[in-house]
Amino acid sequence: MAACTTTYFEPGRGWSARVAERNTELLAQQPLRRRGVRTPEFFFAKTFDNSRLVKAPDPVRVREMRVFSAAVLVLLSLVFVYGLQHFYAIESSYSVESEKQALEQLREQNRQLRLTEAELSQPGRIDKLARELGLATPQPGQIVHPNAAPDPNAPVLAQVGPLPPAGQ
Fold this sequence. Notes:
By secondary structure, this protein is mainly alpha-helical. It contains three helices and no strands.
């Protein structure tokens, strides 16, 4: 069987010349296909002019398409809302977990600071450091408690403050 290699997009040749060539090729191949029975086959170029056709409006089809579009829109809206809620829930769980970790770190840091404070405020340790620095035990009148009421008969140290007004 011979292969037909006709290109219908060759430049410089008209449509009728290509159709005639194709018809000749098909006529030459027919005896090989039909085992001796010759049936003529021809291509006829037909052109259709659809410019006069006007699509008639179909109100039933339009209504069906509107209902279908609305149903698809509602369905997609529900899917998007569900997806957003799902992703927000996942994001919230991650943020809660990170806050729990931060809280645990702060609790551990607070525990370490309390231990350090307790270690540094031991009276025996403070006394030992004071003796190493050459400090002595305070005398009975040297201790001043900040929350205690001042004794009006006790001597007062001089302090720098604003001057009283000239009339007083």
